[in-house]
Amino acid sequence: MLQLQQLEVAYDDSIVIRDVSLEIKQGQVVCLMGRNGVGKTTIIKTIMGVLANRKGTITYKGEDVTSKNPTYRAKKGFGFVPQGREIFSNLTVYENMLLGLEARSDKKRTIDETIYQYFPVLKEMKDRPGGDLSGGQQQQLAFARALVSEPELLLLDEPTEGIQPNIVEDIQKVIKDIKENQKETSILLVEQSFDFAKSVADYFYIVDKGRIVYEGEELIEEEVSRLLSV
């Protein structure tokens, strides 16, 4: 479904991603791991089109989307849950979710009830400003905003970072449900928790100093600990 080939990304003259190639197959959950500051968020933002790559190609369902902007990619089926959530605090919960519908290529402008089954608190608080929600609830809202567009490629940038264990469990259940019941949807997950990654992912990449240093279907805890240790 998605292929990155020899991706290079730089901030001004500083190269932060070097020769990165990875693949996500349809229906697959792929986890991208690595220490803080090694380039994981840069990779996922480049896939979404928020950042431009200097070299390499991004191919989605056979189409070269390397030069396409984020709006084009969103309408093609990309969904993005950024690190830090980035919800609109002055808009209501419901209005925040409606913004996710702008990415749809059809004219549907209603929230599917499945979203509220995933995150019941959002229905209870749909008329509250997004800024009134706790950090964990805001993460649920950011996730829901991405899901309302029914993306075929879902990009999750550290969705469990800094949130309470019960909401981590909710997010884990949602990812597993998508994996089991929405076979057309693929997920790229940026995650640092070994246990969480192993519980949901089918394939793993580890990044260090802007390069892929490990990939495979299995995570060996000793190897991961070595690569992720500070």
From TrEMBL:
Domain ABC transporter as annotated: residue spans: 2-228
TM segment ranges: none
GO molecular function: ATP binding; ATP hydrolysis activity; branched-chain amino acid transmembrane transporter activity
SUPFAM superfamilies: P-loop containing nucleoside triphosphate hydrolases
UniProt entry keywords in alphabetical sequence: Amino-acid transport, ATP-binding, Nucleotide-binding, Transport
Pfam families in UniProt: ABC_tran (PF00005)
PROSITE patterns: ABC_TRANSPORTER_2
GO BP terms in the entry: L-amino acid transport
Keyword Oxidoreductase: no
InterPro entries: AAA+_ATPase, ABC_transporter-like_ATP-bd, ABC_transptr_urea_ATP-bd_UrtE, BCAA_Transport_ATP-bd_LivF, P-loop_NTPase
Entry's family note: Belongs to the ABC transporter superfamily.
Name of the protein in question: Urea ABC transporter ATP-binding subunit UrtE
Protein species of origin: Halalkalibacter oceani
